[in-house]
Design goal:
The structure is a homodimer. By secondary structure, chain A is mostly helical. The first copy, chain A, has two domains: about 5-55, Arc Repressor Mutant, subunit A (Orthogonal Bundle), CATH 1.10.10; about 70-185, Tetracycline Repressor, domain 2 (Orthogonal Bundle), CATH 1.10.357. Helix content of chain A is about 70%, strand content about 0%. Chain A is built from nine helices and no strands. The first copy, chain A, has helices at about 10-30, 40-45, 50-55, 60-70, 85-100, 100-110, 120-140, 150-165, 170-185. In chain A, helix 1 packs across helix 2 (about 40-45), helix 2 (about 40-45) crosses helix 3 and helix 5 (about 85-100) runs parallel beside helix 8 (about 150-165). The longest helix of chain A has 23 residues, at about 120-140. The first copy, chain A, starts with 11 loop residues before the first helix and ends with a helix. The interface between A and B is medium-sized, with 29 and 29 residues. Chains A, B: This is TetR/AcrR family transcriptional regulator.
Chain lengths: ~190, ~190
């Protein structure tokens, strides 16, 4: 998402963004990635193609923007009363949401926006912020908590790597194993 | 790379593949990703655009094919006489080759060929085969060796994740730290 894509909530700019994002999601759901073209998006969203190009630059950057929106957490991670339980539940949800073909596509799109590599970083920050929130809560209960970057390496990185490159064996049990290993060694 | 892109060495098919791959690399080097279009590739390679489409299907699949070719190891991993030394040297080379903007682009392209998700898997297999070769050599010297999938999780996944999503702090020292941690806990 480039600077110019930042929209004030409620303004025309925000309405265009919503309509264009919705058009991308609908076209994708109806016809797959091949159906997602700038002319089709513009027609569906009721704007001109030049509005899309002016705002996002190119299709890859628009897709990265849509992916970022979908990857943004809905709220703080669920509280299950313990560090291990919270991390396991978070990792389970991660696998369920991003291990699907659609989730994989979002991750791909997030690294695909050549015009703005910051989208991938923000997507990674979402995960780091969720892990930090879980850690702060656990520390408040007096639990020993591994650092956020250690958890990124031990839990998030293997999950994302396997979703994108090596899906065989990716499962909730595998994700929980990563969490247990991270808590044993740290 | 789809089945039809598999070429017999020396045949016309192989010559077309070489010319097209070279055209992609040259256009990329000269004008960046924006210069890499099917018409420009075809002109540079001396073939028709329909030859490119017939063989690769679309640009993303061609780019994934080129990326796979560049990510293929040149030979067996260097032998430094010990498991830790071999893994550290391998991880260092991985960071130097793939941590560059060009390397990141290859990794992105490898997951970007929607028409054939197998490219990402083969790219991952290259790394697994190198780690397996290092492990077999170390076992032959009587060293204790972690499993290949454990090394994929502990070393390869964090490196690839950080290259694609979270480059801050990515360095040779970081890669070596991952290797040491993998050998301590396994």
């Amino acid at each position: 998402m480039s600077e110019k894509a930042v929209a004030r909530p409620g303004g025309r700019s925000a309405r265009v963004q919503q309509a264009v994002h919705r058009a991308v999601r609908e076209l994708e759901a109806e016809g797959g990635r091949g159906a997602v073209t700038v002319p089709a998006i513009a027609t569906r969203a009721g704007v001109t193609p030049s509005t899309v190009y002016r705002r996002w630059g190119d299709l890859a950057t628009l897709l990265a923007d849509v992916a970022l929106e979908r990857l943004r957490p809905d709220g703080p991670p669920a509280d299950h009363g313990g560090l291990r339980e919270d991390l396991e539940a978070w990792a389970e949800q991660f696998v369920e949401e991003l291990g699907s073909p659609t989730g994989r596509l979002y991750l791909r799109d997030a690294v695909g926006g050549a015009a703005d590599e910051g989208v991938a970083g923000r997507c990674s920050d979402y995960a780091a912020e969720q892990l930090r929130a879980i850690g702060v809560r656990a520390a408040g209960r007096g639990e020993a908590v591994p650092g956020v970057e250690a958890l990124m390496d031990a839990v998030v990185a293997p999950l994302v790597y396997r979703i994108l490159f090596r899906p065989d064996g990716l499962s909730v049990a595998y994700a929980q194993g990563l969490v247990r290993a991270a808590l044993t060694t740290d």
